[in-house]
Amino acid sequence: MALVPYDENLLPALSKLHQTSAEFNLANHRIRLSQDWNRLGVAAVVWDAAVVLCMFLEMGTVDLKGKRVIELGAGTGLVGIVAALLGASVRITDREAALEFLTANVRENIPPGQQGAVQVSELTWGENLHLYPTGSFDLILGADIVYLEETFPALLQTLEHLSAENTVVLLSCRIRYERDERFLMELRRSFSVREVYYDSQRDIHIYRAVKNTSNTEL
């Protein structure tokens, strides 16, 4: 979500994120994604939370075939790409500055016959939400989008707007700080939230949320 360039010298342990590409074998496809840390910062590299969410989707716990899916703060687009490869119709979103980069990754990794099932579009949380009508999506995906406290109100507003009674939200994240726990507390004001997966090796949690009025499983 945040297009924040970081100083490479401050984060030597994350030097692999400065590589210009990353490759994965997911959804029975070899996926090669461009990365551009220097230009777009955290939005243009693949984080563990995205990989773990993709692995979770591969498990088949969530039936994606024919589902209407939106990914928020997509960054490189890995999660949305995998969802599309698993049979979903996907809207992959991020802020305007990331769209050209994101579109190139989608074009490179979605087979020609499935390109029509994927749309890349601009979505800044909390803004112009009328362009995304409530109830348009069965599943909302977000990987490592819970990290900037100043974005939490807009993110919560966006999740509430997009979610109808049967919409399922899957958030994949590392709980780093107390503010991340506070986000989950705020989310629970409007949603029923439970942890559905934990990757202990990467310390990544996946939370499932539905509006409190619904007990429907996807």
Structural features, described:
This protein is an alpha/beta fold. Helices cover 25% and strands 26% of the residues. The protein contains six helices and nine strands; from the N terminus they run ββααβαβαββαβαββ. The chain has a seven-stranded mixed beta sheet, with helices on both faces. It is globular. The N terminus and C terminus are likely disordered. Its main location: cytoplasm.
Overall pLDDT score: 88
- Report the strand count: 9
Distance between the termini: 26 Å
| Total of DSSP H or I helical runs spanning 4+ residues | 6
Query: What fraction strand?
Result: 25-35%
Percentage of residues assigned to helices: 25-40%
What shape does the CA trace take?
globular
Low-confidence stretches: 1-13, 214-218
| Structural class determined from secondary elements | alpha/beta
The ordered string of helix (H) and strand (E) elements is: EEHHEHEHEEHEHEE
Family: Belongs to the methyltransferase superfamily. METTL21 family.
Pfam family, one: Methyltransf_16
Catalytic activity: L-lysyl-[protein] + 3 S-adenosyl-L-methionine = N(6),N(6),N(6)-trimethyl-L-lysyl-[protein] + 3 S-adenosyl-L-homocysteine + 3 H(+)
Protein name: Protein N-lysine methyltransferase METTL21A
